[in-house]
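Subject: sequence -> C-alpha cells, single chain

Hey, anyone have a minute? Need the predicted structure for the following. Not urgent.
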Amino acid sequence: MATYTLLDADLYGKSVDQQNYHAMIGSLLYLTSSRPDIMFATCSCTRYQANPKESHLAAVKRILRYLKGTQNLGLWYPKESSFELIAFTDSDHAGCKLDRKSTFGSYKFLGDKLVSWTSKKQNCVSTSNVKADYVATASCCSEVLRMKTQLLDYGYMFNKSPYQLRFKERNCYNY
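Reply:
Had a minute. Here:
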C-alpha cells in the first residue's frame, strides 16, 4: 500500500464477513514481527475491524499477494556483530490524513540487528514540526530506557548514560 493511499471508513460499501477479516488481520499482525515492510499497510487495515467493507478486504488481499511475491524477504540476525544500542526516530507533523494527528516511527538496533520498531499516531496533537519531533524523541527514549533495564536484568551493561545523547544525524541517538 502506498503511503499516500487514503483508506477510509467506506460507509456505503458492502460489508464482508467480520470473523474472516479478523483472522486475516491477526495473521498479518503476527507476520509484522519479522516483516516490518508490511507494518504500515497492516495497521491501516486494522482500523476497520469493527465494520470491514469490500474495499478493506481488497487492501488485505493486496498485502497477501505482496507477501506471496516476496517470500524471501525478512529480518536476518547474524551471529557476529557489535552490541551497541542505537535508536532512530522521525516524525511527520499532521501525517495522518484522517484526523491530522502527527505520526512517528522509531527503530532500535543492537549492533546491526533490528530488535524493535514502532510506527504510530501520536496521542497528542502537535502544533509544529519541532513539537512532533520532541514527542517522538521522548517516546523513543522511554522505550530505550525500558530496553536498557531489561538488558540489565540479563547481565548486559552499557557504559554510556542515556542522558549523554551523542548527536549523529537528525533524530539518531547512540546510547
